[in-house]
Amino acid sequence: MAAQQPVPGTQTGLVIGEAEEFADASTRASVSIARDGRGGGAGRELPRKPFNFRRWFFATGWRHVVGILMVVFSLFPIVFVISSSLNPHGTLTGSNALFSAIGLESYVRILTDPQVPFLTWFGNTLMIAGITAVLTVFLGALAAYSFSRMRFTGRRFGLISIVVVQMFPQLLAVVAIFLLMSAIGDWFPAIGLNTHIGLIMVYLGGALGVNTYLMYGFFNTVPASIDEAAKIDGAGHARIFFTIILRLVAPILAVVALLSFIASVNEFVVASVLLIDTDKQTLAVGLTKLVSNPRYADWSAFSAGAVIAALPVVALFLFLQKYIVGGLTAGAVK
Amino acid sequence: MSTTIDDEVSVETPQKPTKKQRRAANIADAASGGLKMLLAKLLMLGLVDAIAIYGVIILASAEQWLVAAIVAVVAVIVNWIYFSRRKLPAKYLTPGVIFLVVFQVFVLVYTGYIAFTNYGTGHNGSKEQAVSSLMASSLQRVEDSPTYPVTVVDQGGTLGLLVTDPDGEALLGTNDEPLAPVDAEMDGDKAVAVDGWTTLQFGEVVTRTDEITALAVPFSDDPNDGALRTPDGSSAYLYLSNLEYDEAAGTMTNLDTGTVYSDIGTGAFTSDSGEELLPGWQIVVGFDNFVRAVTDERLAGPLVYVTLWTFAFALISVASTFFLGLFLAIVFNDMRMKGRKYYRVLMILPYAVPSFLSALIWAGMMNESFGFINQVLFGGASIPWLTDPVLAKFSVLLVNLWLGFPYMFLVCTGALQSIPEELQEAATVDGAKPWAVFRLIKLPLLLVSVAPLLIASFAFNFNNFNVIYMLTDGGPRDSNAPIPVGFTDILISMVYKVAFTGQTRDYGLASAYSIIIFVIVAVISVIAFRRTKSLEELN
Known about the structure:
Radius of gyration of chain B: 34 Å
Oligomer: heterodimer
Structural class of chain B: alpha+beta
Largest interface: A-B, 123 and 131 residues
Distance between the termini of chain B: 31 Å
Number of strands of chain B: 16
Strand content of chain B: 5-15%
Number of strands of chain A: 0
Structural class of chain A: mainly alpha
Mean pLDDT of chain B: 83
């Protein structure tokens, strides 16, 4: 995230003058001359002011209250699931006393239960989402490069139609996708229904879309003079694309790859329709079926699975946080 | 760009390159590619061509001429594009466009077609398939029929019966192929092996019993001649259907009851009293699905309240996440506050956890009798968070707020920080109070940049299947509706349930619902984009 700009005085309900706020901010830690009671504006003319709890509270303290409340709200399901995953043999009821028992048995259970091929699901998900992410970025970058650097008939039309087509999500056409893939499966069993390649191909149908738009915007920020300089030096379009442009736009490639990865991890509808065998399914499909009735499910084993499943995504997310925020807000701010 | 191929005059290319310039550019381009590039290109194209040729052969042998032709044409176009010196943009666009056309555009059109058919459980094949399937499912053993000695044979996974008829002649047939005479190796007066087929040994017969007992080898092309079935893999009996098919009249007659079922154009044999023989077959039914969706009382009711709830859900979700996110962005956009970074990381965690997991976890916590919220936070109360029609809606909105506010928080923070400081200073100098500065200056500017994202977020929530399905599964179920629909279902989850859950799958109706949603989404987006254009003019 870019360096923070101070934007004082925008807060609703905060009516202290701006000058005073700045003075307050710069002197809070410093030694005061004399405490002059609680009057908020009493020390206005003095360069240094004493620490005043009430003024501090109205300026920044209440923000901490909001922050703590929101952190509790944000974290409470996460803490709950971590707690129940550590519960050795918890049902849903048994998971309610947070951190009452600590053990890794439920992790062992979810990883070794022969009825629940968790590791297979996990591997399927990582593989499908990973390949989809890489290919989505590649196909999208190719398209974004041509839209950004070339002028051709139908360019505007192409850009607009990509956005329009994307407005109709694939899951609306899931019946047609199912019938299409089962027809393909009749002729080419290797890429039809119940195959990972088939699912990835369906996901790639969305490779040109919002992502291309995001990349297109970023490609435009790379000056065309770089291309021209390379061209004078004798580089062809392919060399310019693969060796120069792709490196310069690496941050947006990372963002798009991550967003696509997360989208595929979360995708349920198409995956549940296309992948029939339990061993072929993804985490979203498998885990959902596993706890379709939370009352009877092995809740702590599910929680352990959820923690394991969420870890790579959360880690990637936090690791790439800076870029994601940049990518999202670049869209917002233009 | 000197390598453009077009003749479109755009702002960026004020002058069209001359022919000479273009040729020079092409030569330079080709020269710079290098041998490695050329080899890679040839290799990739060779691979694509090999796959295409393989595909065409398979499709041609399955007599799918149209599809085979399409594959061939696409392969030719791809080769032409990549061997051409020109068509540069096409070289970059083709791979993505192929996937886009097949898996977005084509399936969209195909959805439109399915919406006009009766495709679904009981109607998923051709009329011939329906006839043979009906005949096969009503087979009954003929009393006192001769016993046919048989040998079970296998060819590439397909089982066949090698039959010796009472005259001592060998016949071979499968489920799909009627019996035909073959030259077989005889063991005494029983045929035991035939060229091209593997004879199953006793052990294999035992392990594949289910497949073998399901075999019904038609006697001839006429389904009325019956079929041979073997209960044990060594002797077969004649089975005749209790249905008789009259191809000329297009009727099915039940020989036991004498009821005549005729093809009255509804995709199934129907008796005079309206009784249908299923499976039927697939036909185009025109606007029937649409008419049924909006006029059948039991379907129209759910469609109306599901549509209303979908709008309410999407609007409230966008509004609640946006206002909470904006509020937090303002609260944490103050330089004097310490530890903002930590708050921010902790607050965006809900956005980082895969949403299907969060929704499942919330479903556990909101469980009426065992969930954390009732058991611990409400001291053992049994509040029906997910099973009461009204409370379930509230729960869905609450969980979606939890999932969505970090995104809005991030976006609003970015947007706020991009608003120039000077505006604020100028307003303050003019004597504006902070609230006025916010309401009259910052909020409008913020909305200009955030509005497209709000529309995108609305579109996303309009089809936010995961939250609904994982949390409540659309429940509580509406028991009056003939389709599996519940009080928190949104349109997209209703489509999914109509198409893929329950005893009867109605692809036609589901596709009709999809088309209805398409239309709604299209209308909204046109209106919304008009609106945002007018907002942009503010800037």
